[in-house]
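At this stage, I put together one protein's amino acid sequence and its backbone structure tokens, which the following lines show:
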Amino acid sequence: MTWISIPDLGITVSGFESAGTSFGKPGLMNTAMSCIAFCMFLIPRIWAKRVNLFFTGFNMAWAVRNYILVTACHGGDCPVKHTGIYLLMIFSFLQLLMAVIPDVKLKN
């Protein structure tokens, strides 16, 4: 999905396509952290839930970093924000929320 577009320069930026800018592939780290977090969600152990807090927290921090970096005005050219950047923020937050409140039964 498209994150931003810069109409004056004719550039569209998504998580993996940012030709014409120096952003690289900003969504690659989010994808890697989400894949690791998904695996941790599947493991029914307390250590996995604790480790998952790190990965989901890092993913949320990277999403905030992407939002700030990608949507900032550069040289007087301000980008138009699209649905993709907002969905990245929403789903990263939901992922973190799911990691904070896991359903794990502890033994006495």
Observations:
- Strands lie at 2-6, 11-14, 80-81.
